[in-house]
Amino acid sequence: MKEQLSDEQIDKLFKFVKSKYVHFIDVQYEIVDHLASAIEEKQEENPSLSFDRALSEVYSRFPITGFVLLIDEKQSALNKFWYKRFLRYILGYFKLPKILISGTIAFIVSQILIYGNTRHLVVIYFTLLLLALSGIVYRARVGFEFKKGIREKYLITNTYVNIFSGLWILYFYCPIYWSIESLTMIEPLDFSTFQVWFMSIYISIVSILMYAFVFVFPEMLKQELADKYSHLKLKIA
Amino acid sequence: MNKKLLRGSLETIVIKLLSDNNEMYGYEISQKVKELTADEFKITEGALYPTLHKLEGKGILECNTRSIGNRFRKYYSLTEAGQSELAIMLQDMEDYIKNMRLILNPQLS
After folding, report:
1. Last residue of a domain, one of A17, A41, A66
2. A82: buried, middle or exposed (CB in 10 Å: 19+, 13-18, 0-12)?
């Protein structure tokens, strides 16, 4: 039976891993277990081997870059993981039954763009802007995306925030070509068919994303944390 | 053992071991490979963990973390996609070995 390392030695391993630029706590856990397992094995083979000597031998098996490659790969794996979740979600709105929702939004917007006037355009633009800002304010109050402490300590939350929060920018690039004159002069709209459909589909996707950013994606993260990272005891509103 | 050759086969090795053993942790995988090959294949940590994370990113592996005394351990297992990937990888490896033999020992063909 292998003798397990003591609590002090495990703490020492955490300090060692941190000193090698592994700042994410979830990654530290995995590396510490690996180092501890390897040290225990070495000490079982050679009981006179000191902890420090065993650690140095085990660490020498890592490449010269230390744990950097490992963190990069882990980061890229988590980025892929979130991208896939995001794509799967958004592609769902291009298939039945959800296409009925995205199609209806796009259809309503297209009808406004075909039959509406400049004032309608201003209303669409400011409604989306208001919804986007409310979404950001709501998440800032209840979510963790804006709380530096949590976001930067864990790779799982860091990658989530990098991917999902970056998408907020889509709202502000909404291709709604209104002009300041539209506030005073009401004129019929004159968009080409391509412009109408492009704007309608874009606005439909952005509206769906807006809802997802506030209510769906944070739930995905909570689920992921509950399923695989419960040991971190992260409390997310 | 040529390290480049081993690196190229690492994904297949990991997937096969996880299929045979249901779930394993990183260090256990490296030890199992050593044991099965009588110390011929030595998988370095610098190669193993990036491979595990890459496979996890592709959705071939999944993991869950459990407490073992005073620390936590991450166990890897194959997903459904990983199970189907295994058959393809093993077939690819068999074909590769067969073709390499034909090139290295033409008289045997």
Report:
1. A66
2. buried
* pLDDT tens-digit map of A179-223: 666 667 777 777 788 888 888 998 899 889 888 888 898 888 888
Residue A50's domain comprises 7-66
Residue A117 and residue A213 in one domain: yes
pLDDT in tens, A125-162: 888 888 888 888 888 777 766 676 777 788 998 898 88
> Among candidates A19, A60, A65, A11, which has minimal Cα distance to A38?
A60
Task: Tally A–B CB contacts below 8 A.
Answer: 82
pLDDT in tens, B53-81: 888 888 899 888 888 888 999 999 999 98
Is the distance from CB of B17 to CB of B61 less than 8 angstroms? Answer: no
A127 plus A200 within the same structural domain: yes
Cβ-proximal residues to A219 (8 Å cutoff; 6+ apart), any chain:
none
CB within 8 Å: A33 and B74 = yes
Nearest-angstrom CA–CA distance, A149 and A234:
11
From chain B, pick out residues whose CB is under 8 angstroms from the CB of A78.
57
Asked whether residue A172 carries a pLDDT value surpassing 80, the answer given is no
| B31 Cβ under 8 Å from any chain A Cβ | yes
Name A232's Cβ contacts closer than 8 Å, sequence gap at least 6: A25, A26, A29, A154, A225
CA distance A87 to A105: 20
Cα B22-B23-B28 angle, rounded to 5 deg: 125
Domain ranges of chain B: 3-108
Q: Which residues of A touch B63 (CB under 8 A)?
A: 228
Q: Are A74 and A67 in contact (CB under 8 A)?
A: no
Residue A9 binned pLDDT confidence (cut-offs 50, 70, 90): very high
Domain with residues B3-108, CATH architecture: Orthogonal Bundle (1.10)
At residue B1 the predicted structure's pLDDT band, cuts being 50, 70 and 90, is low
**Of A195, A170, A192, A200, residue with least CA distance to A106:** A200
pLDDT at B88 over 60: yes
Tokens of A43: 């000490």
